[in-house]
Write a structure and sequence with these properties.
Layout (H helix, E strand, L loop, with lengths): L2 E11 L1 H4 L6 H7 L12 E6 L7 E5 L7 H7 L3 E9 L15 E3 L2 E9 L2 H10 L3 H4 L7 H11 L6 H18 L6 E8 L4 E7 L8 E3 L2 H7 L4 H4 L6 E4 L10 E3 L4 E5 L5 E4 L11
Antiparallel strand pairs: 1-4, 1-10, 2-3, 2-4, 5-6, 6-7, 7-8, 8-12, 9-10, 9-11, 12-13
Helix pairs in contact: 4-6, 4-7, 6-7
Length: about 280
């Protein structure tokens, strides 16, 4: 599988999360503790938004994250209020740049940890459901990118969470038609540059791990002498496949079949319920 991080809050230098924590994403590329694989060396990607908004920038490479000096240099000099980073462990598709996350369309970024079981059997049906106006945007061969484009097809721009629920519902119904009982295994992160969504879900209700940082007051009360935590604000949130440190009370497990909406002001935690879209929509 894979590992990913997402950050939302006041601008920070990106390497603070990738490199400067005890068990940051770059360390996880070699020493993941809660993933299916210990090593995630089949490429990586970083997508970030500038303080002024607009479409995100992106850097992807097929080299292992731990050995890419360009990533280290970029991360030490880029400051961002919202970014997503991903390290890849392929489930069978080629190691190539177009298969590295985050996937991007317009202002949207999308990362996935997991697998669409039976993807090769379903692939034709899933691809044919993608809006023809979007189809040419698919440049890789992963199930993750197809899931992203299904979400775009089913209304990501106007109803982000509902669109992902419809995309997952469509994959599950297509899977059943092909004899696949548990088609979806996923944690997702996606953003339009203004909000960040994170989802933990699987068809068999045994999803991969996902955590969100506790609120500022809790973290600062537990660790009053930590210099990094003194800089936190009420808006700061970090979502991770596995904790970046072993400090108690900092990381809260996201429940099964749950979506987070992280935004300015009050965040939301809601049930994630896949829906089979209407035939006309599919």
């Amino acid at each position: 599988m894979c590992r990913w991080n997402a950050y939302f809050g006041d601008p920070i230098v990106i390497d603070e999360l990738l490199y400067q924590t005890d068990h940051g994403l770059i360390d996880q590329s070699l020493h993941a503790r809660q993933g299916v694989e210990t090593t995630n060396g089949d490429g990586f990607g970083l997508g970030w938004y500038g303080a002024a908004g607009g479409e995100p920038a992106r850097y992807r490479s097929v080299t292992p994250a731990w050995s890419d000096q360009n990533l280290r240099d970029l991360a030490a000099h880029i400051e961002s209020p919202l970014f997503l980073a991903h390290i890849r462990a392929t489930t069978g598709t080629p190691v190539q740049q177009t298969n590295c996350h985050p996937f991007k369309h317009g202002r949207w970024l999308f990362v996935h940890n997991g697998v669409l079981n039976g993807f090769h059997a379903m692939r034709r049906d899933l691809m044919l459901a993608v809006d023809p106006e979007l189809y040419d945007g698919i440049t890789g061969s992963t199930d993750s990118e197809v899931l992203f484009y299904l979400a775009l097809t089913f209304g990501l721009e106007r109803d982000p969470l509902g669109a992902v629920e419809r995309a997952v519902g469509f994959v599950e119904s297509t899977g059943r038609a092909h004899g696949v009982e548990h088609a979806v295994q996923m944690t997702l992160g996606f953003s339009d540059g203004e909000r960040l969504w994170a989802v933990r879900y699987s068809s068999e209700h045994r999803s991969r791990t996902l955590y969100v940082s506790a609120d500022r007051a809790t973290v600062q009360a537990l660790h009053p002498d930590n210099a990094r935590f003194k800089r936190l604000t009420d808006e700061t949130r970090v979502v991770v496949s596995e904790p970046l440190s072993d400090l108690p009370g900092v990381w809260v497990a996201v429940p099964e079949a749950t979506a987070l909406v992280i935004q300015r002001g009050q965040d939301e935690q809601v049930p994630f319920r896949p829906q089979v879209p209407e035939p006309a929509a599919a």
